[in-house]
Structure formats: C-alpha cells, structure tokens
Amino acid sequence: MPSRPAFLFDLFDIDSNQTTPTLPLQDGALMSSPLATQPLSQAADLDGFWMPFTANRQFKARPRMLQSAEGLFYTDVQGREILDGTAGLWCCNAGHGRREIAEAVSRQISQMDFAPTFQMGHPLPFELAERLAEIAPAGLNRAFFTNSGSESVDTALKIALAYHRARGEGSRRLLIGRELGYHGVGFGGISVGGIANNRRAYTTLPNVDHLPHTLDLQRNAFTRGLPAHGAEQAEHLERLVTLHGAENIAAVIVEPMSGSAGVILPPVGYLQRLREITRRHGILLIFDEVITGFGRVGAAFAAQRWGVTPDMMTIAKGLTNGAIPMGAVLLDETLQDALMHGPQNQIELFHGYTYSGHPVAAAAALATLDIYQRDGLLTRAAELEDYWQQALHGLAGLPNVIDIRSTGLVGAVHLASRDNAPGTRGYEVFESCFWDGLMVRCTGDIIALSPPLTIERQHVDRIIETLGRAIQRTS
C-alpha cells in the first residue's frame, strides 16, 4: 500500500484521450454498452451537444443515456434500472421525481414565468431568503440569488472586495483558496480553486494565493470520521498573512469538505483554526457549501455540523433538489449593511444576473425546503452515518483500495493509480458499476458516493456489493 497519494496538485491531470477498457463480467462475458452498436437513430444524434467535463469522443463511442428518474433510480434508454449513488451530481438530495416540486414549478410558470429583479421585485425570493435564514447558521440572514455554484462563488468574492472597499480598506484585494479546492468554473472560481486541469488551459486572476490541501494518506488513511492529523495545516494562513500583509487580504474561501477532489474531510480543529486566524486579522471566511449543503453531512450545513460559522456561504445544487438551476450566497447582514451608504437612489452593489431570484426557480426551492423539513432530510444523514461508514469500510480489504473516507451520507473509495496511467482504474470501476446498475462518480482514481438522503439500508448494501464487484473486476 503506498504511503502517500499518487497525486497532489494534479489530481485531475489525466489523459483525456485514454481508451476505455473492456470490462469482464463475473461470468467471463465481455461487458459493453448496448448503445455502442445501437445508436439512438443515427450517429449525428450525438454530435451536436458538446458535453461538459466529459471525454466526448470516448462517451459517444460507448454512450450511457438516461431516460427517466423516480425515487432512488434512473432508467436508461434500454429500460435498465440504475441506482443513483451520487444524487445526480451531488444535488438530488430528496431523490427524483418529487411531485411537490413539479407541481410548484407548474403553478408558478403558469402564474408568472419571469419577473426581473433589477429595480423590480416579486414575493418569492424574499420569502425564500427568510426560509433559508431559518435553517442557516446564526447570523447568515441575507441572501443574494444566483443560478449556480460557480456564480455563487464569483458573487461571494465580489462581495468580499466590495465590503472592504466600502469600509475604507480598498487595499484588501488578495483572495486565498486552497490546493485541490473546487469552486466552480468562473474565472474567480478557477483562480481560487486548486485543481490543475481547471486552471492550466485558461488565464487566472491576479492577487490570488493558496493554502496547502489537507489530504494525508500517510497519517490518516482509513480513519473513521474526521481525520485526527492535519489541523496544523491551517497555520499556513499565518504564513500567508506574514507574506502578503493582513491589510491586503480580503477573504479565504474553502470547502468544509472538498467534494470534487474526492471527499477530503477537514482534520479535527482545522476549520476552527481558520476561523480564529481570519477573525483576528479582519479577513472574511467563505465556506463553499454547494455540495455539503442541505443535509449531506448530517446537518443543514457543514458549518453547523462542525461548529464553525463563516462570514459567507455559497450554496446551490440541493437548493432546488437539482430540478431548476439556482444558487445563492448567504451572508452576515453586517456585510450588506456596510454597503448601505450614500444616496438612497444609488445602487449599492454593481452585480447581478438576469435570472437572480427567478420566480420558477424560487418556487422549486421553496417546495424543496418543505420536503427537507417535513421529511427530516436535513438530519437524516446523521441517522444513517454509522451504517454507511461501516458498510464503506467493508471494502477496505479489496485490491488496490488505499483509503476510505466518509461523513454523513457521502464517501470515497480511494484506489491506487496504475503506473503511467492515472485515472484509468477509477474510470473502469465507474463504467463497470454503471453497466451493473449503479451510478458512481470517479475523480481520478477516487470513487465518490453521495446517494439521495432518502436511501434505506438495503440500498446501501446494494451500493457496496456492486462497487465491491467492480473493484475486484478491475484489479
């Protein structure tokens, strides 16, 4: 077992032209996509859509096409049932096909399909802001609505810069992210983010620095719960303060749990130490809770689960259960108040989106919050956490498994990389699972899991059994 990870800053530095391996089934028959020889109608059907974060040529040679979704399951175009082990893309926390959300969307789109929020208003975003404040960490009682996590991050960064300028500290322009952090795909997000392939093809913003990541397989592999070692990594923030000067630093942004990098959990005391340092130096702390929000880690937000309240929090994904694109920045009212000066007819923040507070998206979000609160889904992950953790760690003895990480209802199985072929083993496991009826995510050679919060123990068992078979097949 390797003592250190096979990657550091280049987690996703994988050859996008890698070929898809042939996967043997248990009976020795070859596994292949039924669509590989049965296109939807003709080859051109798959040519028009440039798919995001996808090796398009590889996918279109062996397409995985979904047709419908209900509860915990997708159905593909061949009628095969696929257990959703990833809540869509970390977003369908209440499961699929929720009639309450569909009905709320239908009513709203019939009543008023669109209303501008530039110099105009409508009731729903105001109501939604109040509802979010009720479940958010104490003090985060203001909301700025966006359309995605990426937009939420860029909005939060702009608010941080505007806040310091309004307070007469315009020199605070430096933004600090973290290695292996993922904060969306806007220029602000890729700049403070720390995933190499998201950055290297584009220019990034100036005035950005990074903290080191906290992944430490040598000391923390197979830890159950939060890792015991690594809180001292927060002290690197003091080094950056010394290097750049506190008077020049606007904000620190981190994911409480790094989801896209492979479920990297915060060491015990790490987030608390970041909060202490940022508060002492007048630096804003932003939590990116796009993945961890809305019950994923056993509380409404990771900030509450781990007892650390930031100055701002970015949210999206589970806000509407994935039904309609929507995001938000939740922030302390003192940040907004700092900009409320000058003539009353003066715009306080020159920022916004055509669809900020979109009425149909807001209706979907309100219906989603009703489901979360009525069905107890914001805390359900805490109820299943022990069973989930025990089941995942049952995979520890399988070939090439070098770490298992979990909290709430999210987890990762970290596989050893093949020599000179990082990512191929993870991709093979991903494909094997899909054709065996399970959807997982692969990020490099890490298999990430985040099932809907409506999952039951028998579904957990099915996930573990299917994933275990896939790991053994690809050993």
Gap from first CA to last CA: 14 Å
| CATH class annotation of the largest domain | Alpha Beta
How many domains comprise the coordinates? 2
Low-pLDDT runs of 5+ residues are 1-39
Structure overview:
This protein has 16 helices and 17 strands. The protein is an alpha/beta fold and 475 residues long. The chain has 2 domains: 171 residues, Aspartate Aminotransferase, domain 1 (Alpha-Beta Complex), CATH 3.90.1150; 276 residues, Type I PLP-dependent aspartate aminotransferase-like (Major domain) (Aspartate Aminotransferase, domain 2, 3-Layer(aba) Sandwich), CATH 3.40.640. The strands form 4 sheets. Strands 6-12-11-10-9-7-8 form a 7-stranded mixed beta sheet, sandwiched between helices. Helix 5 crosses helix 12. It is globular and about 65 Å long.
What distinguishing features does this structure have?
single chain, 16 helices, alpha/beta, 4-stranded mixed sheet, 475 residues
Précis, in short:
By secondary structure, the protein is of the alpha/beta class.
Topology:
Blueprint lengths: L22 E2 L5 E2 L24 H6 L4 E5 L2 E4 L4 E4 L2 H4 L8 H13 L11 H13 L6 E5 L2 H18 L7 E5 L8 H6 L3 H4 L8 E4 L5 H4 L15 H9 L4 E6 L15 H11 L3 E5 L13 H4 L6 E4 L11 E5 L1 H7 L19 H16 L2 H17 L7 E7 L2 E6 L8 H12 L2 E2 L1 E3 L2 E4 L7 H17 L2
